[in-house]
Amino acid sequence: MNEQLNLFNTEEEFNFEEMKQKLIDNLDMLKEMTVQEQTLYKKWQEMNKGGKMSKIKKKLLSYQKNLWKPTDIYNIEQTIQEIENLEPYVEIATQGKGVTEWVNYRKLIHTMEWVANPGRNMKFWVRDRKTQKVLGLICLGSDVTSIKVRDAYIGWDKTNKFDQHKLNNTAIATTICSTQPGGYNMLMGKLVAALTTCKTIRDAWEEKYGDKLIAVGTTSLYGINSMYNGMPHFKTMGETTGQVRLKPDDKVYLPWNTWLKNNHPEEHNKAINATGPKQNILNKVFKHCGIKASTYDHGFKRGVYLAMMYDNGNEFLRGEVEESNLKMKQKFIDDVEYTCRWWKPKAIRRYKNLTTQQRIKKEQLFYWDVIDMSWQSTKENYIGEVGR
């Protein structure tokens, strides 16, 4: 295994100055990367960390046959018919084996690394009812406590969000992922994004947490130009400020986490019990190392989007309307039927245009071969796929 992946033994003697330099060197390396390189680098680490994926590599290969793809993407008439025949539906990933399998699929078909957020967390499959093939994956989690453009749109203040607990009535879609080649060639990412608002998910959220789901938000990695633009389900809020710290490799971060826990337990405890625990720990470490934290702000702005499912949803989230008086928008009442009526013509038009322009990409995006691959080879083979 590449020596870059061998995590430091956090029980060994901790050399402060040496580890400080390792931290700075690692962050400087990441700072030199583009956002696409950083994304792929984290993916490469995910697929090779600790040899876990390598141990089940043979089993993981069998997942590929379960991903939807056209029978022959160059057969125009047949492919259009297959798009029209799709019957997308959403089902919850069952606890235990179902969730483990979902996470493995997520790692194999999504360019971004999988990070399990603290708090609420629900995972869903998007499948085709006829073939049972996987069309995509969805994960909804506890909403971000503060996003300036979202809060301004809703008219939210701290009293609404925390004292009245209205933040529990919204969720953030942390994973919206379609399989390829459907994502690129047929805008299947838009389909999966639209399905984050479906009745199956709304009902599952309310049943599990006891809170009606009023709105679903999400962010895009590459700024405001994203697949969410122009979708009738989502409204573009604007962009984040981009003031997010670069996150060092685990081999560098974990010893510092242990050091802070052992030497400053009160600071560590406070950091892990607040929103963004890893970010909080890094901020404390930067302070003790005398590193100016803003030096390692990545500055990459994310687009912010919100699917408000009720005509008077903003009023409800501000505590001005009772739940019994909520009025759902018609397109969300029509649910999956509306989404398919909207998406299928767009998918077919996109496919026809790419065919005419000879820009069809037939390959499935499946990161299985990144397991046991070097970083340089991964970069050469996959950098062009980031964001597809």
SSE topology sketch:
Layout: H1 16-31, H2 35-48, H3 52-55, H4 57-61, H5 76-85, E1 88-92, H6 97-109, E2 121-128, E3 134-142, H7 148-154, H8 158-163, E4 170-178, H9 182-186, H10 188-194, H11 199-209, E5 215-220, E6 235-239, H12 250-263, H13 265-272, H14 277-289, E7 303-308, H15 313-317, H16 330-356, H17 375-382
Parallel strand pairs: 4-5
Antiparallel strand pairs: 1-2, 2-3, 3-4, 5-7, 6-7
Helix pairs in contact: 1-12, 2-17, 5-16, 10-16, 12-13, 12-14, 13-14
Task: Write a brief caption for the model.
With 388 residues, the protein is of the alpha+beta class. It contains 17 helices and seven strands. It has a single domain (33-244, 298-385), classed as Gcn5-related N-acetyltransferase (GNAT) (Aminopeptidase, 3-Layer(aba) Sandwich), CATH 3.40.630.30.
Short key terms for the protein model shown above:
388 residues, 7-stranded mixed sheet, Aminopeptidase, globular, 17 helices, alpha+beta
Please give a structural write-up.
With 388 residues, the chain is an alpha+beta fold. It contains 17 helices and 7 strands. It has one domain: Aminopeptidase (3-Layer(aba) Sandwich). It has helices at residues 16-31, 35-48, 52-55, 57-61, 76-85, 97-109, 148-154, 158-163, 182-186, 188-194, 199-209, 250-263, 265-272, 277-289, 313-317, 330-356, 375-382, and strands at 88-92, 121-128, 134-142, 170-178, 215-220, 235-239, 303-308. Strands 1-2-3-4-5-7-6 form a 7-stranded mixed sheet, sandwiched between helices. Strand 2 (121-128) and strand 3 form a beta hairpin. Helix 1 packs across helix 12 and helix 10 runs antiparallel to helix 16. 32% of the residues are buried. The model is unreliable at 1-11 (pLDDT under 50).
